[in-house]
Each structure stands twice: as C-alpha cells, then as structure tokens.
Amino acid sequence: MLRRFLTFAAAVMLCVCLCACDDVKVTYKQEPFTAHVAFQSAGTEIKGELTYNSPEDISLEINEPDNIAGLEFHSVAKLMNVRVGEVSFSPDTDKDSPVGMLFALLKTVSENDIRISLSGEDEIILQHEGKELRVKIDCEEKKIISIETENYRYKFE
Fold it and tell me: Phi and psi of 146, rounded to 5°?
C-alpha cells in the first residue's frame, strides 16, 4: 500500500513540475541571423534576404519583384546605404521607407529586455517611437516570426 501511495505521489509531483514549465520565462537576446523577409509597400509584395549581424549592422538584398531584384540596403552605425550594381548612395529619408523602418524595428527589438516562454510562440508588445510594435517569436528556435506596426507587417521565414 505504501509503495502504491509513493508511486502515485511521485506521479502527481512530476505532473505538477512539468506543468510549471509553461510559466517559466527566459531572456530573449537577438543573435545574428539570416532570414527571408516579406512585406508590402505601395501594394507590392517585396521579398528579400535579411542579414542581421548587430543593431548597427543590418542588410537586406531584394529578391522580388524582378524590377527591383538585386537592390541592396545596408545600415552601418545609423547610416543607410543603397546599392544597385556599381552605383551606391545614401538616401536622406531612410526612416520613412519600409526598409529603414524594418532596420529601426530590429534595433528596437534588440535593445529591449524581452522575456519569452520555453516553448510555443509568444507575442511581445513593445513601443517604437511612441507607437505599438508587435513581435511574434518562435520560443523554441528563438527566432522572430513577424514584426507588425501600424503601417507595416514583416514576415520572417
């Protein structure tokens, strides 16, 4: 009888311990990554390959649509550089562009203290320039799934 009770008590304790894991939060720190990103601008679906090395070193190469494929955006130390083939320039209004906004949002994500679950997906709400920013994170992989603002939605694949 005592053996059955101890087995039952051990099973109950194991269930309680495993259920408690859902409430555990860990710190999310943005590590360097490469991902395919998709977003819309002026009604056009734009896709490209994003490389994040640090908040100060982010680049995006456009793959689609074909008429702007090969366009490269690179941000280093708050300076945006755009390159098309051999031609390179620094735009004045990079904050207003969807690419400039993407880079700024990634910087905001990296600078915030974010806590995520150990499994599943979490949606984190942050503030960026006084506006709400929603970041969806795959907790197991510790990867961003999407970033959404009032004007843009960026999907990471």
Answer: -160, 155
Closest CA to 98 of 142, 155, 55: 155
Q: 15 near 7, Cβ under 8 Å?
A: no
Alpha carbons 51 and 88: distance in angstroms, whole number: 19
Give the list of residues 6+ apart from residue 91 with CB closer than 8 angstroms, or none: 80, 82, 97
d(CA 156, CA 109): 14
Residue 133: CB partners within 8 Å, gap ≥ 6?
105, 108, 109, 125, 126, 127, 147, 148, 149
- The alpha carbons of the chain give a radius of gyration, in whole angstroms, of 21
Going from the C-alpha of 112 to that of each of 126, 127, 130, 138, 141, the distances in angstroms are 8, 9, 14, 17, 19
| CA-based end-to-end distance of the chain | 55
- The CA-CA-CA angle for residues 63, 68, 69, to 5°, reads 30
pLDDT tens, residue by residue, 11-65: 666 665 555 555 688 989 999 999 999 999 888 999 999 999 999 999 999 999 9
